[in-house]
Design a protein that fits this description.
By secondary structure, the protein is of the alpha+beta class. It has nine helices and eight strands. It has a domain of about 100 residues. Helix 1 crosses helix 2, helix 2 runs parallel beside helix 9 and helix 8 packs antiparallel against helix 9. The N and C termini lie far apart (about 40 Å).
Length: about 210
């Protein structure tokens, strides 16, 4: 019944997905639909979005456009082979795949190339000897918490302003990875599909789309 519900309302590919993972997908959709206006997209509606091509090369299973007032982002769901499947390739019970989700948004200005994630203990130790991450002198709280690299430090200092940093501090979670290439933003959560994390990714991507 759950698989039928998902296929009816989201048209997602659920082949090879465990009932538990499909239930998580259903929960994720219901939360997104409660918080935002959501629309399922087909390929014809995304021809002018260059990042869709990359997603299509990675087992694309479904796309949602998420809108909140005048803000919007895109959630791209892909299917990946689970760790259990890789370890038990000859065991049919271990053949389930899992969902990965990424949030994309089109930004108003060109940021060049920027990568942001939470700092690890190793990052902080390395930074004692080699300054690898950008230091935002006027925002120590951000500098201490986030690892930031960019193509051109001067450009990053101008583009990653206080409003930008405040949004990242407010919404970015552990295991969130933020990539920006020019005007395309991608946010990825590395631990698979999670309803609350997906909603926060959408919130951050929608908010950053107005910067």
């Amino acid at each position: 019944m759950i698989v039928g519900y998902i296929r009816k309302y989201l048209q997602f590919d659920t082949d090879g997905i465990s009932p538990k993972e499909v239930a998580t997908l259903k929960q994720t959709y219901e939360l997104l639909n409660y918080k935002y206006k959501t629309q399922f997209l087909d390929y014809k509606e995304t021809r002018n979005l260059n990042f869709i091509y990359l997603a299509m090369q990675a087992n694309l299973t479904g796309m949602l456009m998420v809108q909140k007032q005048f803000r919007r982002c895109f959630l791209i769901f892909t299917k990946s082979q689970s760790r259990a499947s890789k370890m038990n390739w000859n065991d049919r019970q271990g053949s389930d795949s899992s969902y990965q989700v990424r949030a994309y948004a089109i930004l108003r200005k060109d940021y060049g190339k920027v990568f942001i994630r939470r700092k690890s203990l190793i990052d902080k130790i390395i930074n004692i000897f080699v300054v690898a991450s950008i230091n935002f002198k006027m925002d120590k709280a951000f500098t201490n918490k986030f690892y930031v690299v960019a193509e051109g430090k001067g450009c990053a200092d101008d583009a990653i302003d206080q409003h930008f940093r405040d949004l990242v501090k407010k919404f970015s979670q552990k295991d969130f990875y933020i990539n920006i290439i020019n005007r395309t933003l991608m946010i990825e959560y590395s631990n698979g599909l999670d309803a609350q994390k997906t909603a926060m990714m959408a919130e951050l991507a929608c908010a950053m789309s107005t910067l």
